[in-house]
């Protein structure tokens, strides 16, 4: 028997195995998150509870595309300078991000994300007189870790920074999602 007759099928099988293994890692996922948000601009620097939903498609163990909605709560407090009184703002964000994943073992992964968001930060009447209505499209990025309880259920801890024009919004969150395989 010729070595070519053995080598070609063996090589084809060896090249197909990683594709078969990655097929098990593919799938749509959806979940929710809750966290702590810190909003900081020229007039207001306060914290509140955030919540959101996210979903996406994981292409392989290393890459996913994700869409998200995040509500950063009702950020309220004393305005700077103090003679402006008090005010509040309700920031929200719709985003799309690329997620890079670095698997460490079978159940744990490190994450890095970068994307674009369409946001709005609606101020109350007192603050609107000072800053006006605010909305735009800006980048956001983050890092985190994910633990897979099963092949379908995962827990994610994440830090993300959202740019809101001249304001920054930092979020630390804990999310739980389900992957449809």
TrEMBL record:
Q: Which residues form the signal peptide?
A: 1-23
Q: Does the keyword Signal apply?
A: yes
Q: One Pfam annotation, family name?
A: OMP_b-brl
Q: Does the keyword Signal apply?
A: yes
Q: Which UniProt keywords apply?
A: Signal
Q: Which domain of life is it from?
A: Bacteria
Outer membrane protein beta-barrel domain: which residues? 10-180
Q: Name the chain's protein.
A: Porin family protein
Report the source organism: Coralloluteibacterium stylophorae
Q: What is the lineage of its organism?
A: Bacteria, Pseudomonadati, Pseudomonadota, Gammaproteobacteria, Lysobacterales
